[in-house]
Write a structure and sequence with these properties.
By secondary structure, the protein is an alpha/beta fold. It has 14 helices and 16 strands. It has one domain: TIM Barrel, CATH 3.20.20.80. Strand 6, helix 4 and strand 7 form a beta-alpha-beta unit. The longest helix is centred in the middle third of the chain and has 20 residues. About 50% of the residues are buried.
Length: about 450
């Protein structure tokens, strides 16, 4: 594994002009002047192990070749990566599926982070299998005999859920920190716009598995659904969420954070939502979390610019969100999920997206690279502190155009995945922003 790129990447990231000042999050204008490196969150993904097990080899054009998960993370490090990500659902043990989100895998990733000297960013997802903005199913703590469940989860009140979530947060924190891994941020939940831990509105059609209305908390929640909320006027939607859901949600997430901090007192907490291109929604959500007792140090978002046509440039709309988060709540922003296609997506689940180019960025490899470079260079001066390209290594037909690798096949070497130019875009965007970043430090 070549290391020249990693060496000069590290050197450049330590130049003050490319560092970000981490501001306080108490609503004051004060700057703590704690300087941290921009989070180039190029990381192995929930799909990496299944890709490796299929015999796929990853290459970057610099002579680096990866046939193991460890080697792939090293390849990412050669392009500036400075953290590892893992999603942890409430499964305790490996599931054997292609998308394992178990605590067991989380421990494996934590050990890898410790071995490579990288911080770990765990996402503590409060569902059994998977949940996102389209639906937030119930957690399942049946593999944690030390957690006492008085009744079925959907029959509990918020007050009864709180000690369980606190205990769960502490258990996960103990397991991860026991590996020696340094945790840079604890992300609680995945795209939690409309609920978490089963305390959520009804999912979109086709996402009803493991959902049960939280009637013991408020029957109004289970009578509302994701599609209806998305069709509401923005002010009406925010008002409904602020009245019926977000206050409960803030308490639940705060309980997980309290459990984590019982193990790691100075733990930095975060979460992320899907509607990063809607500034008014983003500010309303994070303000509600703060008022409800869940205080984050960084606001997380997802952004898939070609998922829809409104607004015309979702990248620029997200940059407005970043500015508004800093201006109104004094919170820095982290892009927890991002992908831009290198080609138009013709079919599969993402073929239903609008799949029109975002602003000036064409749907080709050059456009993919330019979009991420622009997002980085423009964002760092406005409060953006990091970007995670989502599933950069996933070359399955359903995601291949959104991946940072192109799949190639040969009779001699089988399937290989060759890095696209966008693998260097965050690094290059930081270099572009050097002068502006210094002036906004």
């Amino acid at each position: 594994m070549k290391t020249d790129r990693a060496k000069w990447t590290t050197a450049l990231l330590l130049v003050p002009s490319l560092l970000v000042s981490a501001s306080c999050s108490d609503g004051q204008a004060e700057d703590t002047s704690v300087v941290e490196p921009f989070r180039i969150a190029l990381s192995v993904s929930p799909f990496t192990d299944s890709q490796i097990n299929k015999g796929i080899a990853f290459e970057d054009g610099l002579g680096n070749r990866a046939t193991t998960t460890r080697e792939l993370q090293r390849l990412f490090m050669a392009h500036g990566a400075n953290e590892i990500y893992v999603r942890i659902a409430t499964d305790r043990y490996a599931t054997g599926s292609d998308t394992d989100h178990s605590l067991e895998l989380g421990i494996t990733r934590a050990k890898l982070a410790a071995e490579l000297g990288l911080p770990l960013n765990p996402e503590i997802a409060l569902f059994k299998m998977y949940g996102d903005v389209a639906g937030q199913p119930l957690p399942d703590f049946s593999e944690y005999p030390e957690i006492d469940m008085p009744r079925r989860w959907q029959e509990l009140t918020v007050d009864e859920m709180l000690p369980i979530l606190k205990q769960y947060g502490a258990l996960v924190a103990k397991e991860l920190t026991a590996t020696g891994a340094k945790i840079n941020s604890w992300n609680i939940g995945n795209e939690v716009d409309f609920g978490t831990a089963g305390v959520a509105v009804r999912p979109a059609e086709g996402n009803m598995a493991l959902y049960a209305p939280p009637d013991a908390i408020d029957p109004s929640i289970g009578k509302q659904d994701v599609v209806a909320l998305l069709r509401m006027d923005a002010a009406q939607r925010n008002a409904w969420l602020e009245r019926y859901l977000w206050p409960h949600q803030a308490r639940l997430m705060a309980a997980v954070g309290e459990g984590i901090r019982s193990v790691v007192p100075d733990a930095k907490l975060s979460t992320h939502i899907a509607q990063g291109a809607i500034p008014e929604f983003a500010v309303a959500f994070y303000r509600a979390m703060r008022e409800g007792g869940f205080e984050v140090g960084v606001a997380g978002f997802s952004l898939y610019p070609t998922s829809m046509d409104v607004p015309s440039s979702r990248i620029d709309a997200f940059l407005t969100t970043v500015k508004e988060m800093k201006k109104q709540l004094n919170l820095p922003s982290f892009l927890a999920e991002y992908a831009y296609p290198a080609k138009a997506i013709a079919d599969g689940p993402y073929g239903e997206w609008s799949n029109n180019k975002d602003g000036q960025f064409e749907l080709n490899e050059a456009g993919q690279a330019a979009a991420l470079r622009y997002l980085t260079s423009e964002g760092i001066g406005s409060g953006l502190v990091g970007i995670r390209p989502w599933a950069p290594d996933f070359i399955d037909p359903s995601w291949r155009e959104l991946s940072l690798f192109e799949a190639r096949a040969s009779a001699e070497e089988g399937i290989s995945a060759v890095a696209r130019p966008a693998i260097d875009s965050i690094f290059l965007g930081l270099a572009d922003a050097g002068t502006e970043a210094r002036s906004n430090k």
